[in-house]
Design brief:
CATH architecture of the largest domain: Alpha-Beta Complex
Shape: globular
Largest sheet: 5 strands, antiparallel
CATH class of the largest domain: Alpha Beta
Helix content: 40-55%
Structural class: alpha+beta
Length: about 325
């Protein structure tokens, strides 16, 4: 199979790298995650990949993989130069043994990494979050898909019902009707710009070069007509979760999640929380919103976030913040 894959990549090289001659041969390194992923290299040059092949694990995944090609083509077209260079060119290679296959151009830079050391953690966090904020602001200016007003139907369908489902197993004593009323008071009539969402803004999906984001990988979650704060809150929340996990390896996911929520919404108790909150305030202000909306907007994000277990505990913890501010 790998010989067929490599041959198809070379046959499509002109689309992947216009004006660049194909290499005479390719080496590959297999990495397995949700997809089967091959990193391709020129012979003897294993430091810098030339391209990335993604292969479905099962035919049921083919449609989503093919959709990614169309999504990336659309997003790159909206971005234009130079920002399109942070998104990989992506080409369908068709199916091999009934499995979908695409190839992406490799992007420059090194994966964004966080640091938990006493002396470097704050400086690294400031650099990472500022780089992401700069990239996201530029990205969202190019990918507007309309506007929306938070009327009763939007609040019910996209905020309150997901929140109710998320809390279905919660043992908490929250008065959901009171919480719903508070959210309606804060969000009713709010004008919202709609944008393409990247959809998976975990810091590890970003490449850095000279202090700036040089690439964003894994676009399978991208979608149009999304709220602009979703990508922001996913980045800062998961950054805080990973920081807690690395600094406190014995903590389970719920403890890390609750602590991350406090880092974003409670009075900051360390430099990392202070950075995350300051940058969040700046991002929200650029949308034209007051910082008082940070908690309710975060709750709309959290209600949608995929969390593998005990999400109700995270929602209850976040709702305590909106309840405490009334």
């Amino acid at each position: 199979m790998i010989d067929i894959l490599l041959r198809r990549v070379l046959d499509n090289w002109a689309q992947l790298y216009p004006g660049s001659p194909p290499p005479t041969a390719l080496q590959h390194i297999l990495q397995s995650r949700r997809r089967v992923i091959f990193f391709l290299f020129a012979p003897g040059q294993l430091e810098i990949p030339l391209a990335v092949i993604k292969l479905s694990r099962h035919p049921a995944q083919n449609e989503q993989l093919e959709k990614t090609v169309s999504v990336i083509r659309t997003v790159r077209g909206l971005l234009g130069p130079p920002l399109e260079q942070t998104v990989p060119r992506t080409i369908s290679l068709g199916q091999i043994q009934d499995l979908g296959c695409i190839v992406e151009s490799a992007l420059p830079g090194d994966p964004m990494r966080l640091d938990t050391s006493l002396w470097r953690s704050a400086a690294v966090a400031q650099k990472n979050v500022r780089a992401f904020a700069t990239w996201l602001e530029r990205f969202q200016k190019k990918v507007s898909t309309g506007k929306q007003t938070f009327n009763g139907d939007v609040l019910l369908d996209q905020v309150l019902l997901p929140l109710e489902r998320g809390l279905a197993k919660s043992p908490s004593n929250f008065d959901l009707s009171n919480i719903s009323s508070l959210l309606e008071q804060r969000l009713q009539g709010l004008p919202v710009p709609l944008v393409w969402s990247y959809g998976d803004t975990h810091h590890s999906n970003f490449l850095m070069q000279k202090g700036q984001i040089s690439g964003a990988v894994d676009w399978e979650g991208a979608a149009p007509k999304q709220w602009p704060w979703l990508d922001w809150f996913q980045f800062v929340f998961q950054y805080a979760v990973e920081f807690c996990r690395k600094k406190n390896p014995a903590w389970d996911s719920v403890v890390c999640g609750k602590t991350a929520i406090d880092m974003l919404l409670a009075r900051p108790e360390d430099r990392i929380a202070n950075i995350l909150q300051r940058e969040t305030t700046t991002f929200i202000s650029h949308l034209g919103y007051d910082r008082d909306l940070i908690v309710p907007l975060f709750i709309t994000f959290l209600a949608r976030l995929y969390w593998p277990e005990h999400k109700d505990l995270l929602l209850s913890h976040a709702l305590a913040h909106i309840d405490a501010k009334t």
